[in-house]
Amino acid sequence: MSVDYAVVIPTVGRDSLEVVLDALEHGVGPPPREIIVVDDRPEPGPLPPTHSARVLRTGGRGPAAARNAGWRAACCEWVAFLDDDVVPPRDWKQQVTSDLAKLGLDVGASQARIVVPLPEDRRPTDWERGTAGLADARYITADMAYRRAALVHAGGFDERFPRAYREDAELALRVLAHGYRIVNGDRVTTHPVREADFFASLRQQRGNADDALVRRLLGPRWRERMGGAPGRLPWHVATTASGALAVLCGLLGWRKAAVAAGATWAGLTGWFAAQRIAPGPRTRDEVVKMVVTSIAIPPAACAHRLRGEFRHRAVPVEGRQRRRVVPVADALDRLRTRGGPAAGRSRVPRAESSGGGSGVVRS
């Protein structure tokens, strides 16, 4: 049985894109009907040879918008998303078509198993351990094939997520809510650890702004629904508050209070740094990096979370939204039953987006 599929690759122009395209061009297995590369850099730039791929440009709107542009341009039953920094095996096309050919209509997506190679001669660094977490992550689009109908029903990726963070899991939960299943395929794709500079972990704290949006979309138990580990934000808040209190008390001349608050800040910061240093290689460079960034991360995380809460303040919180909408719907049903003003009108279905904007319309 042949599989009708397209491959969509969002990219920011990494050299590793050539590895992905080469696997698709020269690997074994049934070829996709189309390969779509979506260049999401703010300004167009050179790309590796794209062979027979079609190139779209989205102007730096983020991976969610890039993937939306890609799957909406594809006219296939299945859309396989690949990141531009993965290494598909030579027989990836054979593996993905084998995964998809055996799926029923109730399956909306097939997820690959992701392997992250780590050094064998030493302990992994903090950055390497973070990347290794992709191997156990649920719903990541590093290698994920979606039934196009499921993407249409769910409305696609929410483009309010500007980074490659949370947007994939949030879409998966909407696909599940539409009655589809998401299954694990047998194919295996490698995700190497990219090089990172000194402050890479500090820049990652921008994701706290996206957590504010997720909390509003999915409710207070969003981490549990996504299958994620408990976050560190409460500890970062405590660390930042104790540091700020120490400075304030010092300015006011309250020496004992300043010392107590400062000791609390130092203890929490030291505990955070120790947690990051202990499982690592403990080289001089790694220890210095962990100490410096452990001082900077708590206030950065808090600032980004506040920024996200402010930016998304108009998005209704999932639980509260439900409590408001359901009684109104019940009241309209009662009016129709009694022949009131709403009698005779057809019930308005929940709106679904077919494109544009964030790709999500919520009643």
What this model shows, in words?
The structure is a single chain. This protein has 363 residues and is α/β, with parallel strands linked by helices. It has 2 domains: 5-196, Spore Coat Polysaccharide Biosynthesis Protein SpsA, Chain A, CATH 3.90.550; 204-314, no CATH class. It has helices spanning 17-26, 63-73, 92-101, 126-132, 148-154, 167-177, 200-203, 207-218, 222-226, 233-252, 255-277, 284-311, 318-338, and strands at 5-11, 34-39, 54-57, 78-82, 107-115, 143-147, 181-190. The chain has a 7-stranded mixed β-sheet with strand order 3-2-1-4-6-5-7, sandwiched between helices. Strand 1, helix 1 (17-26) and strand 2 form a beta-alpha-beta unit. Helix 11 crosses helix 12 (284-311). It is globular. Mean pLDDT is 89; it is low at 321-363. Residues 336-363 are annotated as: Disordered. Residues 7-109 form the Glycosyltransferase 2-like domain. One of its GO terms (cellular component) is plasma membrane.
Shape: globular
Query: Total helix count?
Result: 13
Total of domains:
2
Q: What CATH architecture of the largest domain do you see?
A: Alpha-Beta Complex
Distance between the termini: 40 Å
Would you count the extended β strands for me? 7
CATH C-level class of the largest domain:
Alpha Beta
Fraction of residues in β-strands:
5-15%
What is the helical fraction, as a range of percent? 40-55%
CATH superfamily of the largest domain: Spore Coat Polysaccharide Biosynthesis Protein SpsA, Chain A
Mean of residue pLDDT values:
89
